[in-house]
Amino acid sequence: MRRFKLHASLAAALTFALAAAGPAQAQDPIRIGAIYLMSGSAATYGEFAQQGAKLAIDEINAAGGVLGRPLAAQFEDGQGKAAVAIQAARKLVFQDKADVLMGLDSSGVAQGLTPVVPELAKPFMITHAATPDVTGKLCNKYTYRLSVNVNQNMAGAAAIAAESGAKKWTTIGPDYAFGHQSWEFFSKYLKEQKPDVQLMEDKLAFPRFGAEDYVPFINSVMESKPDGVLISLWGGDLVNFVRQANDRGFFKQGYKVLISVGAATEVLEALGEQMPENVWLGTRYWYASWDNPVNTKFVAAYKAAYKQPPSYNAEGAYVAVYAFKAAIEKAGSVDGAKVAAALSGLSIPAPTGELVFRKADNQALVGPTWGISGPMNTEDKIRSLTQIRNFDGAKITPAADPACKL
């Protein structure tokens, strides 16, 4: 069973310059600076991101690199703190000479770092953090996101909730931007589709991120007797919650339960059979739900390299490296402003299909995947997903926030 901690072989600041055959290796590398959670209860997310990036860099370097130069990456631990991530970004650019930046696992950290990105003058690709603000009111010409944001994910969640028949809804989510914005957008979209639903605003549960005891919050929700519960806890927090909720009989109460990122393979591996069946689980990417050559290649290569299925954080980091490759080749340069401009409107093949960065706000038009937890997948040792729904990003993504001025 995978535990939510960093493997001993990984350090807080991690570097890999990946060797490959060919003349590209005679040139100075193009440097990718990455900031992820590399320690603490959610460190597995950083580990998966590192693996996804490494796989892409290996493939690209083996094929000759980019503009005749190899790629190399350095990972820094953002520790889930905006101040630490800002310091790491400045170090990567000014000391380590990173040409491009990627990362972030926390919406709160993304809100803190995004306004600083223009001073670094390097393109920054968000691959995980989901707050709409970074491609909304905080947007800038250097910041892009290729992953599903809260707005997109909750549009899918609300569609499922609207079909469920549940009338009274509450939530359990982390007490920062991700938890509160998940409930905000879920409520908005659900009310639009089902005006008669009751949103139990006085019965919401927002434990602090990193809390260990969820029993008081579980009891409070159970005492309120909802019909449906949206759960936006993630990582180690979600693992702890599910185990404690199982002990309290939470999943046997007949609620319609939607776990917004419950199909993260990091979580499913940690929980194994403890993740209950017949629960709606969301994810930004599900490795078994896309039938195209890019996904087939990615999943096979990832499993061969790491002996486990790829998580959405691995897929996001993998795609980010290829997005940078395409943008650098389009720009014909590693100049930060030119690469950032080349990303605008860029379309690239990805495991989820053709990925397009919208010119209006630099948000990728991607949709979430939702499915019902099913029997254990004996090969991959995680719960399977049944009744899978891949939402169309072009249809589910709302119009660009008018507050975004690029």
What does this structure look like?
- With 406 residues, this protein is of the alpha/beta class.
- 38% of the residues lie in helices and 18% in strands.
- The protein contains 13 helices and 15 strands.
- It has helices at 43-62, 82-95, 107-113, 117-120, 150-164, 177-193, 215-224, 235-248, 265-271, 293-306, 312-331, 336-343, 393-396; strands at 14-17, 30-36, 71-77, 100-103, 124-126, 143-145, 168-172, 198-199, 228-231, 256-259, 280-283, 347-350, 353-356, 369-377, 382-390.
- Strands 8-7-9-10-11-14-15 form a 7-stranded mixed beta sheet, with helices on both faces.
- Strand 7 (168-172), helix 6 (177-193) and strand 8 (198-199) form a beta-alpha-beta unit.
- It is globular and about 65 Å long.
- The chain starts with 13 loop residues before the first strand and ends in a 10-residue tail after the last helix.
- 55% of the residues are buried.
- The model is unreliable at 1-13 and 17-24 (pLDDT under 50).
